Sequence to fold (56 residues):
Amino acid sequence: MKKGMLTASIFFIILTFIGIAYVLATNGRANAGYAIIPMLFALISIAAYRKHSNIS
Fold:
């Protein structure tokens, strides 16, 4: 389960950077949600990973 949460957080971080690149490529005409929503899921999965792996 810990490995799955770590994999999910890496996946969502990559999606965040893709979203940032898309927003910047469209000169800000695209919605910032393309970058913010994946980052929200990345933060949630990182927090869950830290909770289950006793890393402080």
